[in-house]
Amino acid sequence: MSNHRIPAVLTGLGTCLPPRVVTNEDLARRLDTSHEWIHSRTGIASRRIADAGTSTAELAAAAGGAALESAGRSSCDLVLVATTTPDRACPATAPQVASALGLTGAGAFDLSAVCSGFVYGLSVAAAMIGAGTCAGVLVIGAERYSAIVDPQHRGTAVIFGDGAGAVLLERGEVADGYGAVLHTELGSDGTGNEMITVPPGERYLQMRGREVYTRAVPTMTDSARRAAAAVGWQPADIDAFVGHQANLRILESVAKRIGVPPQRVITNIEDVGNTAAASIPLALAAAADEGRLTPGDRVVLTAFGGGLTWGSAALRWPDVRPVHR
Ligand code: COA
After folding, report:
1. Category of 64 on φ-ψ map: left (φ > 0), alpha (ψ -120 to 50) or beta
2. Is 216 in the pocket of ligand 1 (CB under 6 A)?
3. How far is the CA of 302 from the centre of ligand 1 (A)?
4. What letter would DSSP give residue 146?
5. Which of 47, 56, 74, 224 can pair with 161 through a Cys bridge, CB separation 3.0 to 4.6 Å?
6. Rounded to whole angstroms, how far apart are CA atoms 260 and 123?
7. Which residue's alpha carbon is nearest to atom 43 within ligand 1?
8. How far is CA 170 from the centre of its chain?
9. Is 155 a pocket residue for ligand 1 (Cβ < 6 Å)?
10. Region of residue 232 (phi > 0: left; psi between -120 and 50: alpha; otherwise: beta)
11. What pTM, to 2 d.p., does this model score?
12. Ligand 1: does its nearest atom lie under 6 Å from the Cβ of 278?
C-alpha cells in the first residue's frame, strides 16, 4: 500500500547543466585512459563540467527556478537542496537558493545522502506534504563534483559530472493519480562509509569502485522491488525504471534482476556521467523530452550511494513539460 496518504504530486521538473562538455577523448588527452575503457565499463561518453566560478547554489537555483516555471508557480513553502558538494560547510546552500528564487521566508535546508540525495529529498518532501506541514516543496539535487574529484585520478575523474535537477511537489487532489508519489523507502548501512568518502582533512573523493558496484546491484534490486510491491505493481507493470545514473552496467543488471525489459530502462548517463543527487531528475527530464515518459506511466526510481545510502520511490508520471536553464 502507498505510504503517502495525502498525495504529493509532481507538478514541475527543471534542470540546469553547465555548458562545458568534456568528452572521454578530452580526458584521454591528459589521463592514462581511453574512450573505449570508460564507455565499455560505465556507459559514459561525456559529462558537463562547471567553470570554476559557478557555484552549487547557482546550479541549484537555476534548476529550481526551471521547475517552478515548469509548474507555472512562483512560490512554494520549502526548498530542499540535496547535495554532496555544498559551496560551504556552513551555512546550508538551500536558504541562499530560496532567496535567489525570490522565496525568502520559505523553509530551506540541505540534505546530505550523496547519490541517494534526490530520492531522500523526494521522500522527505512527500512525507511533509502528507503530514500537512507543507503545501509545496521544491526538491533540488545539485552537484559540482568537479570541486571534489581529483582531475588527475583516472578512477574517479572519468565517472562524475556537474549539474542540477529539480522537481516541485505539491499537495494534490488528483482524481486520476497522475504525478502522485505513491510510496518511498529509504535505507542505509554506515559500516560501508569508507567506500565512498572525502576523508577528513582531505580535498578529494575516494571510491572503492569495485566494492560499490558489488553492493549497489543487489541493494538497488531489493529496494526497487519492495517499492513496486508496496503499491501492488508486478515487474511487468513498471513502464519506466529510473535508477541513479552511476554506471550503465549497474542499471542494466538491476533491471534484469527485477525483470524490467531493457527498453523500459531510462538512461542518460552517456551524456552527463554520474551527477550524484542531480542524476535522477536529469534522467527524468531527458526521458520526458524524448517522449519516453507519458502521463500515467508507472515509474520506479531507485538510488544507491555514499553513506552507504539507498532509496526507492514509486510514482505515476504526471503531465509535465521539463524546463531547462
Ligand atoms: N581508464 C583505464 N583504466 C582504468 C581506469 C580508467 N579510467 N580506472 C581504473 N582503471 C584500471 C584500474 O587501475 C585497474 O587496473 P589494474 O587491474 O591494472 O589494477 C583496472 O582498470 C580495473 O579497475 P577496477 O576499479 O577494478 O575497474 P572496474 O571494472 O570495477 O570499473 C568503475 C571501475 C568505477 C567504473 C566501477 O567499479 C564502477 O562503476 N563502480 C561503481 C561506482 C559507483 O557506482 N559509484 C557511485 C556510487 S553512487
Report:
1. alpha
2. yes
3. 22
4. G
5. 47
6. 23
7. 246
8. 19
9. yes
10. left
11. 0.97
12. no
Q: Where do the structural domains in the chain lie, given as residue ranges?
A: 1-325
Whose alpha carbon is nearest atom 8 of ligand 1?
Answer: 155
CA neighbor of 139 nearest in space, from 170, 114, 162, 163: 170
Q: Answer yes or no: are the C-beta atoms of 146 and 205 closer than 8 Å.
A: no
Of the candidates 283, 310, 286, 284, the residue with the CA atom closest to the CA atom of residue 297 = 284
Grid cell in block for residue 80: 530542499
Name beta bridge partners: 242: 301
Among 23, 83, 213, residue to substitute to test ligand 1 (most atoms within 8 Å of Cβ):
213
Could you please state the CATH topology (level 3) that the domain comprising 1-325 is classified under.
Peroxisomal Thiolase; Chain A, domain 1 (3.40.47)
Nearest residue CA, atom 48 of ligand 1?
305
145 CA distance to ligand 1 centroid (A)?
18
Cell of 263: 527498453
User: Closest ligand 1 atom, CA of 38?
Assistant: 7
| Spatial separation of the C-alpha atoms in residues 255 and 301, rounded to whole Å | 11
Residue 154 phi/psi, 5-degree rounding, is -65, -25
List the pLDDT tens digit at each of the 325 positions of the chain: 566 667 899 999 999 999 999 999 999 999 999 999 999 999 999 999 999 999 999 999 999 999 999 999 999 999 999 999 999 999 999 999 999 999 999 999 999 999 999 999 999 999 999 999 999 999 999 999 999 999 999 999 999 999 999 999 999 876 667 899 999 999 999 999 999 999 999 999 999 999 999 999 999 999 999 999 999 999 999 999 999 999 999 999 999 999 999 999 999 999 999 999 999 999 999 999 999 999 999 999 999 999 999 999 999 999 999 999 9
Helix (H) or strand (E) holding 315: strand 309-316
Does ligand 1 have an atom closer than 6 angstroms to the CB of 204?
Answer: no
